[in-house]
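step: validate -> pass
step: tokenize input -> pass
step: predict -> running
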Amino acid sequence: MDRLNPATGESLDPVPDDSEEDVEAALDRATERFAEWKDVPIRKRQQLLENAGEVLRDNEDEYAELMTKEMGKPLASARSEVQKCAWVCDYYAENAADHLQTERRPGPSHAETSVSYEPLGPILAVMPWNFPFWQVFRFAAPHLTAGNVGLLKHASNVPGCAEAIQEVFEEAGYPEDVFQSLIVHSDRAAQVIEDDRVKAVTLTGSARAGRSVAKTAGENLKKSVLELGGSDPFVVLDDADLDAAAETGATARTINAGQSCIAAKRFVVHTDVYDEWLEKFVAEMDDLTVGDPTDDDTDLGPQAREDLMDDLHEQVQDTVEAGATLELGGEPLDREGFYYPPTVLTDVPRDSAAAREEVFGPAAAVFEVESEEKAIEVANDVHLGLGASVWTQNLDRGERIAHRIDAGMTFVNELVKSDPRVPFGGVKDSGYGRELAQHGIEEFVNKKTVWVQEADASEEDVHTTNE
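step: predict -> pass
step: emit ->
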């Protein structure tokens, strides 16, 4: 795996790929380990996960620096990401056993009926570069603790992170091969998904990648969870707190240099407050510092790769050519590395690139609407449905609108975020299935019905058939 430091454009030491023989051996080891790991008491698995959280905290600076070097995340943000990974470990270390407790179910008087949650086996996780630790830990923390074993195919520009994550679990005391990183390119993923030793797959990535993974998994009758892209609306109503909506809006658009599936991307603003909010929002965006990600004063680091910066700039240019007005930014910065400034587009045509596509960088598309109904229409006018944010001082109004937006998650007076305590996922082309909370840990288990009765029980159940 060749690597570049996106802040400087300089080459980093490459990480050797795994050969086909290496992958075969890893799959064999995963299968063998699962046979033992699934029978380890869940309380023991929870203790190991708690240990992993401590390893993360003890090595926070090392892991943060690695993320910054490989994909350009500012150090402060990278440290926060490591801390969040430790949090998800804490959450499932405390709650996994309760989430997977066998449930007694109603049944006939002569039988005991229950549902148990049993692991499936080796699970493949295909993960992206933008949150190179967090995306992996929100997969691994629940599903290893449920008794599965994990195989990671990480993004090609963060192989060092992939290796470091495997080392976290090893240092935490997990048995060897409970979690393995496969250092392979994307063209090898389908072959791994098809392998009979792999029982399910989860992917975080683009809709295009999601369709490919879903097709391969479906053809092989394997469970899949897809967390795909987003073009999240940020709706500012006429009774919103404009200072808060502008400040949080700028943060929501530019976290991780705008490279987040749940970043606010389309700002839908009521005409009665449009001018005032826009002035505040542009000022907030303009006040952000773009620079060296190793500098603690930096708000935005570089885009993770040069081609990603080029794609972002092409979307901005296409939108301006379609009739949008450029209020701020709009040109790559003239410096070493792959830097793009905070950018604001207004008068955005509804059929332009910034309106129809996911814009993966710090460029905001702003739409003016004359009513609440129009705001909901514009918010829903996209093929993606991951998250949404609604701003109003009337909480009943906010909750009502939240239910009318086509998204897997809607936040009122808050930016969209992932939290171990609540499920995460989308609808439409943003994918299916859920991560995190109890809903997430249940995705890769066999929800097994167990019916137990005496052999000579004779009570007839008139509702029973053989189908």
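step: describe -> The CA atoms of residues 17 and 464 lie 55 Å apart.
step: cleanup -> pass
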